[in-house]
Amino acid sequence: MPTEALHLSAMLADLAEDRDGPISLGEIIDHFGPRAFGAVLFVFAIPNLLPLPPGSTTVLGMPLLIAAPQLALGSRKPWIPRFLTRRTIEARTLASACRRAIPWIERVERLTEPRLGFMFGRAGDIAIGAVCTLLAAVLILPIPLGNMLPAAAVAALSLSLVQRDGLLTLIGYLIAATSAGVLVLSGHIVWRAVEKLGSMVGLW
């Protein structure tokens, strides 16, 4: 079946097939074909939805910060530095991770379908890339529990690219706007607390 007709879960299932030896990041990206941008963004966004040790979101957010701007600039396939594409993972480890993720992705896919096609195309994809770039920049910041909403927005937007579901794109934009609002509110609260503390100790 052509890659364009496959759901992300089906592409992951293909990766989960029994095979021997290591598989490189470059091979994984090539496997996703025309859906590579959406798949790569989704795969690296999902772990950021989990409570992670300090610094983890910075590491996991870097691939997003490399790929998302390329989508915003109109690239059709993500370019990853060669030293990263040569990095390998054991095929069995990758297969195990894929098998755990597939049931959850299938549940989301049942609710999605190709619709609102005007949300995509060159201008639409660039807009998604620009928003994901801003969200990735937030993800790499060491903000306690500040990764979940941006990661959810990137996951929704990237999955919408794979599924070509414009409604899911709108949901992703809504989550992104909510994330921005929460970030601004949090920053305001922190600044007010700093101001109050400063006045208490006589700094100003």
UniProtKB/TrEMBL annotation:
InterPro entries given in the database record: ExoD
Q: One Pfam annotation, family name?
A: ExoD
Keyword Transmembrane found: yes
Sorted alphabetically, which keywords does the UniProt record give?
Membrane, Transmembrane, Transmembrane helix
As recorded in UniProt, coiled-coil segments are: none
Q: Where are the transmembrane segments?
A: 126-146, 166-191
Q: What is this protein called?
A: Exopolysaccharide biosynthesis protein exod
